[in-house]
Inverse folding.
């Protein structure tokens, strides 16, 4: 069949919705001395900028600040940004480098064949603020200790976000979280020590299949730094600095940012106050399959390339099923026929 006619036919169909929810786990990206090359330097010992505004707050950019005493010891690329006295100025002091205590987990529930509701399920980060101070971050869910004391001003009720799983929608993802910071600067380093809380904070960004992280794959995709922490070409930054550092078998890149916002509670024994402004950049990856039904070639969409795979395996009802065609047996009846074609066409995204 002519490819253009096939696309038109597929797009004219009414799409059905699979209601099965899935959970993806993400690990924050790090790049240490053992991984470093001259082209891809280590993140150990650096933070994004020593100054405050104006600056960019991403690693591997021109204004990175190198510490002589080993801050950011794990080579973390994700960071919080804290201005203790308010919004920038000479007192800008902290940029905790974030690594995972447990993976960030997001629940995805489909609302169409290429759009998903997103709900954060877990988040636990450790943050090296200085060579001696930590500022760890934890998700607050309903029933957690912070929700049982009105002093903390949070209820753990995070609103649903969305992921638009096509290049035409720029792979945009957003969700909101309630979270708290636990820092050892008050003499108590326990994760249960709530030192600052944040309510309904939007994390805005992208979830992009790794296979799309190429000049061709992102050619028609508009990517901007969501929180305005970077003044350069954000797409080039992801392609040149982040994509080469992803594990080979990663399936997708997650980039989210929280624009600088005020806490709703702070402990009197820590340097952060209600006037402080805290933002973050989270850069992570997953090994989990993306929740795109019937994506035969694993590139994060269902398009003509997937139909090419099915067409090459199409043999009719009851025909012998070759091993390499198992992926195209979508109705699990041990053949590839027009029933499988009809299954695939319901999830065609047109990318």
């Amino acid at each position: 069949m002519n490819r253009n006619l096939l696309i038109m036919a597929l797009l004219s169909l009414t799409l059905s919705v699979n209601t099965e929810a899935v959970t993806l786990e993400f690990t924050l990206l790090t790049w240490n001395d053992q991984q470093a090359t001259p082209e891809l330097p280590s993140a150990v010992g650096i933070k994004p900028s020593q100054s405050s505004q104006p600056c960019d707050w991403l690693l591997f950019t021109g204004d990175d600040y190198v510490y002589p005493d080993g801050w950011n010891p794990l080579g973390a690329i994700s960071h919080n940004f804290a201005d203790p006295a308010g919004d920038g100025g000479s007192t800008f002091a902290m940029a905790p480098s974030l690594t995972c205590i447990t993976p960030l987990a997001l629940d995805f529930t489909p609302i169409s064949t290429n759009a998903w509701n997103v709900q954060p399920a877990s988040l636990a980060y450790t943050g090296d603020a200085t060579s001696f101070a930590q500022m760890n971050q934890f998700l607050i869910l309903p029933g957690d200790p912070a929700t049982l004391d009105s002093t903390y001003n949070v209820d753990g009720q995070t609103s649903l976000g969305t992921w638009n799983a096509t290049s035409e929608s720029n792979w945009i993802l957003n969700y909101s979280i309630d979270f708290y910071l636990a820092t050892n600067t008050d003499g108590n380093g326990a994760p249960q020590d709530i030192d600052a809380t944040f309510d309904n904070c939007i994390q805005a960004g992208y979830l992009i299949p790794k296979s799309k992280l190429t000049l061709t794959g992102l050619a028609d995709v508009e990517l901007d730094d969501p929180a305005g922490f970077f003044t350069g070409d954000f797409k080039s930054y992801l392609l040149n600095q982040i994509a080469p550092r992803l594990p080979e078998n990663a399936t997708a890149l997650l980039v989210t940012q929280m624009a600088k916002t005020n806490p709703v509670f702070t402990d009197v024994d820590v340097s952060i106050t209600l006037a402080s402004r805290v933002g973050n950049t989270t850069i992570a990856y997953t090994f989990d399959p993306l929740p795109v039904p019937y994506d035969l070639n694993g590139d994060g969409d269902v398009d003509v390339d997937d139909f090419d795979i099915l067409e090459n395996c199409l043999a009719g009802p009851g025909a012998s099923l070759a091993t390499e065609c198992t992926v195209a047996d979508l109705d699990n009846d041990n053949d590839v026929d027009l029933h499988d074609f009809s299954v695939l066409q319901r999830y065609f995204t047109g990318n």
Remarks:
- Residues 304-313 form the longest helix (10 residues).
- The longest strand covers residues 97-112.
